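re: ur question from earlier - yeah i can do the single chain one, its not a big deal. heres the input i used so u can compare w yours
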Amino acid sequence: MTQETASGAGEAIEAMPPPLLQIEGLHVSVEGEPILRGVDLSVETGQVHALMGPNGSGKSTLANVLLGNSAYEVTSGTIRFRGEDITAWPTDVRGKAGIFLAFQEPETIAGLPVIQFLRQALSARRGIDMSVLEVRLMMMEWMEKLGMDPSFGERHLNDGFSGGEKKRNEILQMAILEPLLAVLDETDSGLDVDALRTVARGVHTVREARPELGVLVITHYQRMLDELAADRVHLLIDGVIVAEGGPELARRLETEGYDAWRN
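and the output i got, formated as C-alpha cells:
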C-alpha cells in the first residue's frame, strides 16, 4: 500500500460518523444504592434496539438517566449523543438536542390541552415560537397518518385517557417533535394485543417518514419486538448487560426466561 493510499484510507475512517448513542461503562446509583454497574450500549442512526430484562434489573433507570433525571446519580462512565459527551447535560438541553422519552406512565396534566403542550414543546425543540395554526396543521396531518380522532388535540393532556390513548399520544409527540433518538420505556405496558399493534404501527409510520430515527425499546415482551423488528437485543440483569444478539435472543428469552443468565 502506498503512502497516498494509506492516507486516503485513514481519511475515510476518520469521516465515519460516531454512533447516534454510545454508552460506555455507565454506573448509576439512586440514593446511594448502585443500580447500573457498568453498562455498555451503542445505537446507530436508523436502528431499532431492544433492552430486555426482569423487573428491577435497571431498565427504567437507564431510560431516566438518558433523559437526565436528577434523581439518578451517574457515578462513572459516559453517555455520548452524536459524538458529544452529554453525561452532565440537563433534561431540557437533551430534549432540544433531539432525545425523546416515551414514558411507561405518561403524566396527566388537567387543564392543558394536547395542542398547547405540543406547541410549547415544539417551540423549545426548534428554538422558535411556533404558532397555534402551524402546530394544528402538523397535528392534523399526523393524526390522520396515525388514525387518530382530530378532536384528540383539544383534550387535556392524558386526562381521562385510556392506556392505549396515552401511548398513542406519546407516539404523536414523537412524530411532531422529530427527535433523532426515541427511548420507548415499556410503551407496551398494560396494553392488550390490539392496542399494542396500534402503537407499533404508529412507530412504523413515524420511522417510514423519518428513517434516520434511532429507537431504543425497553420491554418485557417478545410480541413488541415481533411488531417492531428490532435490529439488536440487549439483556440487562442486575444492572449489567449480560447478553446481546439479534431477534433470536428475544425468542430464546420468551421460551427460557431469565434464569439461564442469572449468576
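The first strand starts at residue 21 and ends at 30. not sure if urs matches, ping me
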